[in-house]
Write a structure and sequence with these properties.
By secondary structure, the chain is of the alpha/beta class. It is built from 15 helices and 15 strands. The relative contact order is 0.13.
Length: 420
């Protein structure tokens, strides 16, 4: 039977690794004061594509046949709809959510049709403060996964002003943004060809390509933009955000990248992406930005907002999670010599569980040797063994399955060894 493209099964070791990663990430979000909420996996098509909010990517929505519904494309649109329906919530509203999303696109390396994203958003609040808070929380979440990264930052409003200075009219602005956003994927030459296909002159294309490929540190790039526009007005927020990020003591370097605009049309200001550092491929593992008009598309007033999405699947692939060896949460496997020992063994198992130690008991008809083989296959560190002698003495045998050491001890003594 053919397996669907763009999705994958996870083996127990992979699922355990993923769950532990999500736990670490969410613990960071919780430390930053983000609250949890949930939204459905599908929305009305009008919600998913409100006033063209996701632009040309609307064609990638999985639609339900004969119904006005589609699987969510990302978690941001559902949040915007939720906020429009619940304007009684106190602002700023800080939320986190981890869940699956779906996009009907061509599967490729690190790009799936079904994938998991961990999102944070701040709705309301002061722009520069909330931008820095979201970016810092995302950075520290990535650090919790043990990855090195750089943050690339730009401001769509700055790009708009520069392109306006070059002579690009408002009607062509989104087309130009979507094209230059593909620079990392298709390269400079094809970007130039695509810009010419939009009707831009060779001279104008050269100006755009020169701007988005500008070299230098953050201040040098911002100073160049100032010289083009004749003032520092349009780079002020970028400068202040970079300064504020330093107060969070994040490990990754924050860089200005004028080619970064992100493909979704609903972004209105600051945009940012986190790329793997010290890697052959500078894969994007997280991205986000400011969307100050999206909530207003669902009714009521516009509420400024900023957020990001961590690509859990991309992080997992970066960490080579399929090579992980942990297979089960159980720390102890309880084995017994004969069926008459089962009730005693079950009592010990439940005592371990009640004491906070994940434990598994033999549930199959097999001899002691095969029970050990099963425990080793699960990569459990300890085995508790009980037979008639242990039942009579009220004790148990504790074996370290890694070293092979075995001792007869009381339950409390065994618990102390296991917890150490």
């Amino acid at each position: 039977m053919p397996f669907p493209r763009g999705v994958r099964d996870l083996m127990p070791n992979e699922a355990l690794f993923r769950n532990e990663l999500i736990k670490r990430v969410e613990e960071v979000f919780q430390r930053f004061g983000f609250v949890s909420m949930d939204t459905p996996s599908f929305e009305r098509l009008g919600v998913l594509n409100a006033k063209g909010g996701i632009g040309e990517d609307a064609k990638l929505i999985f639609e339900f046949k004969d119904e006005d519904l589609g699987l969510r494309y990302d978690n941001t649109v559902s949040l915007a709809r939720y906020m429009a329906m619940h304007q009684e919530l106190p602002l700023p509203f800080k939320r986190y959510y981890t869940g699956k999303d779906w996009r009907r696109e061509e599967p490729q390396r690190m790009r799936y049709r079904e994938f998991t994203q961990a999102d944070i958003d701040i709705v309301g609040g002061k722009e520069i403060l909330t931008d820095a808070e979201v970016m810092a929380a995302g950075a520290i979440a990535i650090e919790s996964a043990g990855l090195d990264y750089t943050i690339e930052i730009n401001d769509r409003r700055l790009a708009e002003k520069v392109f306006e200075k070059f002579g690009i009219n408002e009607l062509m602005f989104m087309g130009v943004l979507r094209t230059i956003d593909k620079l990392d994927k298709i390269g400079e030459e094809k970007v130039a060809e695509a810009l010419k296909a939009l009707g831009l002159t060779s001279e104008l294309v050269d100006q755009i390509v020169g701007f988005i490929n500008l070299k230098g540190n953050a201040e040098e790039k911002l100073t160049y933009a100032d010289s083009l526009l004749g003032s520092k007005e349009h780079t002020d927020k970028l400068r202040k955000t970079l300064e504020l990020l330093k107060q969070y003591h994040i490990r990754g370097e924050a860089r200005i990248n004028f080619s970064l605009v992100r493909g979704l049309d609903y972004y209105t200001g600051m945009v940012f992406e986190y790329k793997l550092a010290n890697a052959e491929k500078k894969d994007t593992i997280c991205g986000g930005g400011r969307y100050d008009t999206l909530i207003g598309m669902y009714g009521g007033k516009n509420i400024p907002a900023v957020g990001l999405s961590l690509g859990i699947d991309r992080i997992l692939d970066s960490l080579r999670f399929s090579d992980s060896t942990a297979y089960t949460y159980a720390k102890v496997f309880v084995a017994f010599v004969n069926d008459g020992n089962y009730t005693y063994a079950l009592g010990i198992t439940n005592q371990l569980r009640a004491s906070g130690v994940p434990a598994e008991i033999n549930l199959a008809s097999r001899n002691l040797s095969n029970q050990f083989a099963y425990a080793n296959a699960l990569k459990v560190k300890y085995a508790v063994i009980v037979g008639d002698a242990e039942m009579s003495s009220g004790k148990l045998k504790l074996r370290n399955l890694i070293s092979g050491d075995e001792q007869t001890v009381s339950f409390d003594e065994a618990l102390g060894v296991i917890k150490r």
